[in-house]
Amino acid sequence: MTNGISALLAESGTKGWPPSRITTPSLEDDGSYDSDAKVPLSEHVPKLVHRWQQSTSILSLAASDRYIFAGTGGNEIQVFDTDTYQKVDTLTGHGGSVLCLYVSTSKSLLFSGASDSILKVWDTDSLQELYTIYSVFDIGDIFAVLYSEILKTVFFGSQNASIQWCDMTTIDKHASLDKSGLPSNRFSKFFNSSGPGGKVSPCPKETKLAVPKSLIELPYHNIVPYAHFGYVYCMQIYQPPVHTPLGIGEEYVLSGGGDGNVNLWAMRNGTLESIRKLPNSTSVLCMTVIDTFLYCGLTGGVINIWDLDAFQMIKSVQAHKDDVLSIGSFGNCVFSGSEGYVRKWSRDLSFRSRWKCHNGLILSTITVKRDKRNLLITGGNDDSIALWNITDALQNRRPDLSFANDQLLASLATFVSFRTVSGSEEYLADCRRCATFLKSLLKKFGASSHLIVTENNRNPIVYGRFYANSSEKTDTTVLFYGHYDVIDASGSGKWETEPHTLSGLNGYLYGRGVSDNKGPVLAAMFAAAELFQEGKLRTNVTFLIEGEEECGSLGFQAAVSAKRDLIGADIDWILLSNSYWLDDEVPCLNYGLRGVIHLTVEVSSDRPDLHSGVDGGIDREPLMDLTKLLAKLTDDSGKVLVPGFYEPVRPITEAEELLYEQIGENSPIGLSKELLMAKWRLPSLTVHAINVSGPPNQTIIPHRATATVSLRIVPDQDIDVVSSTVQRCLASQFASFKSRNHLSMRLNRQADAWLGDPENAAFKALADAVKEEWGVYPLYIREGGTIPAVRFLEKEFDAPAAQLPCGQASDHAHLDNERLRVVNLYKAKNIWRRTFDELPRRAKISNGLIMD
């Protein structure tokens, strides 16, 4: 419930919520007076769904079916989409802090009150301003506003202790084009009176109104001038149950003020009539209602419960040590906010839990229901808005995917929490637990699932299969490939969030692996699961999720070949999502990857490390031989001199030329065709590192020097031929040195290049799905990197592959602050849904069995 005291307290706390702390609720002591404060975190603390970081305090909150509205100390109303968490608009027009917001029960109207003495009415769909309402009296700040759907009347309480109202059915009768009556244009005793020496304080500038005809001047009689003997801090609509004595079907107004009273009002004969006064010990800052029980948050940290049947206070609890600034309710639970903490209570104010929400004062708290999820939204003077899932956990039942985006985020949070760094014994247990988590998730969704053990005790492969269950099911089977292992995130110290705790901030999800490849894997898994649970899955969908991709997919090929009978020989298509857009704006499909050959080249001497001042110049040094040898691999322009290296590279076709032209026309980053071809379709050679024996001493002649070399190869280059040729080339060049040192080479790993067919049915189905979701057809791109499993899977199952990049170019995969935009995650899931459903039809079209 929004309260007007927000403005008075908004600047007294700390600023700037550290992103590294935004996702871990805390049970540390907030100085409460409760003896039962220590409640298990896992049982009672809700999950943080998302947080928006702003630049000014969040003073008020409201929500429609689609949007969250946040009134700020910067005179604006920020608007966020509750599905994608993107900020969609900023509503301007107020000339002061937006202290209160209210969305009508019909969810069609938004009302906003501010410190400029102005009340505004907005359309919640178009986000357009409808009316600007002002009083003929000097009312000061508007602290509270509400709207009665039955009475079709908006009420607002103000700093001058008054309550005013406006009948929305007759509002147009009071429309005016005259701005002279606006509070900012009237004589102000405070701003316009002369001070010492005859000086006049500067008057606030007039608020600019985009629609002058929307000006509404309230009639003189639409006011209760002294509704309270103090500020009117909060207001609440109350519609009693049938059995109460107040009246069936009526709506009443409750108001709380600085005088400590809660007043109950009813509209009678066009005026607001006082029905009851409920006295409290201190100022009433906020309130909420459950059935016939009124919960009042007071200064000094007290919450009082009033029975509105009997008009008696039935309980008073010292809930916080500081003022109760905001309060909300859902079902039989009450949520109260104070200095950084929210507390959860039962309806009889028995304490249940508490958690750290903000790094400052919690100035506004509301609860909303979205489909089958219950949400708590909090705003504070740390300039942030937090969205919490307060839905009770459902035990021992298959996840209900009718609100799958919430399930998707919750599962992704768990997925990211596993430190699945491959190639390290330290994280082996986490990798095993993660694989078990994925297997269990697939089984819960209705798939058959097993773990496939790999050689040398490496991380297992997760196998899962959803069998087609639609009345229109087909024999088509797709294999989705992904990986659950990640690059190590420790050591850099540059992460702004905890890398293994999923953090939502400003429409993005941050965490190691969220983009590469955990988010995309779950998007495809949830797409298949949704179709399966709806009985609409027309294709068999098999998942192979490995745990060694970042280490070159060691053991993957042997394990898959050994379990081919389990996986199935009926695979028709290979699909994956382990790539990124070319920029941050235009969706893409990927149809090509370069292969890779990793070599270690070493030159060593029979002698130990020597001192350059004693033995320098006597014989050939291993490091000098190695650097000279590596220099023989390229010319001065960087062209690779390995014999026959470029000969197999196929010339570019007219169709591919057209794809490059489309990239130039549609991508904003302006990469030339020549640069893209060098990155994507031409082979290359790189020297990654040179290491030497001995201590890091500038006088040492190392007896051993080792270089790590890779070659990126392209389709039509035979990987075995290239590997053997480069090793023969190095041996031949070294022999020409006639050195007493020794050359050795080791092939670490290699993987074939992959080139897909952009015209096949899988790419066509993906392109159509991308168009449906993003509104544009994708760019067709290639990449210079390597995914070792792709070409192997094509060969193993004799099935073509296609790839959907999920993330943006700025996702920072493998780097600090890896992220994935929430919109991209959701749309990737929807694209896979469409593709799994449409691919059988597209395949028939490609085979000429049906017409498009």
Explain this structure to me?
The chain starts with 5 loop residues before the first helix and ends in a 6-residue tail after the last helix. By secondary structure, the protein is α+β, with helices and mostly antiparallel strands. It is 20% helix and 33% strand. 49% of the residues are buried. It is elongated, with a radius of gyration of 34 Å. It has 15 helices and 47 strands. A hairpin with a 2-residue loop joins strand 24 (326-330) and strand 25 (333-337).
Low-confidence stretches: 4-43, 206-212, 393-397
Largest sheet: 7 strands, antiparallel
Whole-number average pLDDT?
Answer: 88
Q: Ends: how far apart?
A: 55 Å
* Range of strand content: 25-35%
- Helix amount: 10-25%
Using the alpha-carbon principal axes, give the shape. Answer: elongated
Number of helices: 15
Oligomerization: single chain
Set out the fold topology:
Layout: H1 6-9, H2 41-44, E1 47-53, E2 58-63, E3 67-72, E4 77-81, E5 87-91, E6 98-103, E7 109-114, E8 118-123, E9 129-134, E10 142-148, E11 153-158, E12 163-167, E13 175-176, E14 215-217, E15 223-224, E16 232-238, E17 252-257, E18 261-268, E19 271-279, E20 284-290, E21 293-298, E22 302-307, E23 312-318, E24 326-330, E25 333-337, E26 339-346, E27 351-370, E28 373-380, E29 384-389, H3 404-417, H4 428-444, E30 448-452, E31 461-466, E32 477-483, E33 503-505, E34 508-510, H5 514-533, E35 540-546, H6 556-562, H7 564-567, E36 573-576, E37 588-593, E38 595-604, E39 610-611, H8 612-615, H9 622-631, H10 654-666, H11 673-680, E40 684-692, E41 700-701, E42 704-713, H12 719-737, E43 742-751, E44 754-755, H13 761-774, E45 779-783, H14 788-797, E46 801-803, E47 819-821, H15 822-846
Parallel strand pairs: 9-14, 32-35, 32-36, 36-46, 37-45
Antiparallel strand pairs: 1-29, 2-3, 3-4, 4-5, 6-7, 7-8, 8-9, 10-11, 11-12, 12-15, 13-14, 16-17, 17-18, 18-19, 20-21, 21-22, 22-23, 24-25, 25-26, 26-27, 27-28, 28-29, 30-31, 31-35, 33-34, 34-47, 37-44, 38-42, 38-43, 39-41, 40-42
